[in-house]
Amino acid sequence: MHLPITEEKVFKDPVHNYIHVQDDIIWRLINTPEFQRLRRVRQLGTSYLTFHGAEHSRFSHSLGVYEITRRIISQFERRGYPDWPKEERLLALCAALLHDLGHGPFSHSIEEAFQMNHEDWTCKILLGDTFVNKVLLEVAADFPQRVASVIDKTYEKPIVINLVTSPLDADRMDYLLRDAYYTGVNYGKIDMDRILRMLRPFRDRVVVKESGMHAVEDYLMSRYQMYWQIYFHPVTRSSEIILRQIFRRAKELYHAGYTFHFMVEPLPALFEGKLTVGQYLRLDEALIQTAFLQWTSEEDELLRDLCGRFIHRRLYKYVEIDNIDKETVDAIRQAFRASGLNPAYDLEIDNPTDLPYDEFHSGSSQNNKQILLLDRHDHVRELSEVSDIVRSISGIQHGRYRLYFPEEKVRKVFDTLPEDIKAILGQG
Ligand code: ZN
User: How many A from CA of 376 to the centre of ligand 1?
Assistant: First the structure.
């Protein structure tokens, strides 16, 4: 049964000022161990090694996404828009609150290292034998499944999915504002109140009133800046590379039968790719960092070195180059091997191009990834058709290549490397 809460509860939040909880179900979901675990997972993974303020958690982000969704829906209800299905309110709020429930510690790196996906884990936690599942079941027998289908984008009413996952959704608005606040950068400070006022439910989509176009342009420019200044920051990428290498090395050692001086549950199940939901929920950043700290005195020299680099922030150096072909990469690896380095660990090439505005490339068919503007005559147009600014940043492939390597190791053998490779590594 779904009850309104007897008295509204509030959380103080630095980004949204207050987060208002008006439903008993939401309050009880927040108080489950699965949701509380998100306090121990940072929103920005290793970014705190670049921006020391970026220690905020997935817990605060999830509350923020819930709050933005709540404000959007209460506006839809207040204005009585007929295209908003009122009976979906609680479902949308639960999906917003729980959308990141399956994020693991340092999730992007751990997902890459172990081929996991946080969305799959979110659904497993919603549907498994968990406290969250029990609370959701009190709404209706099919409610956990309905929340999961919004998360995996199969729910029958696209407008609910669109509200929770779209290029202008509550998730993105919260993380831009929150990440800007905690990193301390000036980008990302979007006029969210104005954007929220301009949103409309229209048929099975959430669209933006045409007069809100400039606020949306500003939002996309902020996002573009945040990707390059924060999310793709070369120092953050360097720490992610080391993190992935630690996972890779530990997994290699585990499968080779190496005896770790320090091992903790559920890491063996992680290495074997056999985590249960219960085991997955025991993974958090406190546990991973404890393991890494203990491994700084492991016998294996490589693992010891990598863990020391991560814990004490001795990151890899990087050089940026416009382009690099496979032959050059092979030549560097070859030269590294000849000089006694280990190219599997001593050289990583990174090319961040996962751009946020690709989706707006005009000409692509209308889909859930587009932002739609609604004019006075109820005509809908895709944003980049109307906005010169958005068109100019659509589909740009701006990426440069970055070569990462342990500087002091490479310096020791630098003189033995071929001249052309010295020229590449010696810049910057
Ligand atoms: Zn999120």
Answer: 33
Higher model confidence: residue 207 or residue 168? 207
**Ligand 1: distance of its center to the CA of 171 in Å?**
5
Distance between Cα 427 and ligand 1 center (Å):
38
Average pLDDT along the chain: 91
Distance 264 CA to ligand 1 centre (A): 29
Asked whether the beta carbons of 25 and 94 are under 8 A apart, the reply is yes
Q: 382: Cβ–Cβ under 8 A, 6 or more apart, which residues? A: 360, 362, 366, 370, 371, 372, 373
Q: How far is the CA of 169 from the centre of ligand 1 (A)?
A: 10
Mean pLDDT score, 47-56: 97
Among 279, 278, 284, residue whose Cα is nearest residue 36: 284
Give the separation between CA 203 and CA 201, rounded to whole angstroms. Answer: 7
Whether the pLDDT of residue 369 is over 80: the answer is no
Separation of CA 101 and ligand 1 centre (Å): 9
Calculate how far, in angstroms, residue 1's C-alpha sits from the geometric centre of ligand 1.
28
